[in-house]
Amino acid sequence: MEIRENDYIFSDDQQLIDLLYVHQYLSKEAYWSADIPLSVVKKSINNSLCFGIYRDNKQVGFARWITDKATFAYLCDVFVDQAHRGAGLSKKLMSFMIFHPDLQGLRRYMLATRDAHGLYEQFGFRSLENADQFMAISVKDVYKKQ
């Protein structure tokens, strides 16, 4: 599935993903995945529903859903290259992804963010209700140990 807007292509075709570009961003620029190994990024892409933004045959954005495509989806690793920010690409990517056929009728969609609440609220995300019912195991600096 793909859409074109202005000079950009939004696609769910995993064959288009530039693994080295995504790894470089996630390992060097993203606060949530510093030092993530290339092998982990590759495995995460292979086991997720992924989306890319492309311009002039180069990748300029990425996001992925961890999902069973039936009841649950967790959005993660969302980014737009610094040089392409401010053009509404994050909003367009979210619109493209949230209406993807594989993500319809799910019971729960989740994500975690430190700084993009305003973006995600536009698509219906809210702070957790009954947050005391949710639990997690968080391994700090997991990639620094490998």
From TrEMBL:
Organism: Pedobacter yulinensis
UniProtKB keywords: Transferase
Molecular function GO terms recorded: acyltransferase activity, transferring groups other than amino-acyl groups
InterPro entries: Acetyltransferase_Butenolide, Acyl_CoA_acyltransferase, GNAT_dom
Cited Pfam families: Acetyltransf_7 (PF13508)
Higher taxonomy: Bacteria, Pseudomonadati, Bacteroidota, Sphingobacteriia, Sphingobacteriales
Keyword presence, Ligase: no
Top-level division of the source organism's lineage: Bacteria
Stretches assigned to the N-acetyltransferase domain: 1-146
Protein's name in the database: GNAT family N-acetyltransferase
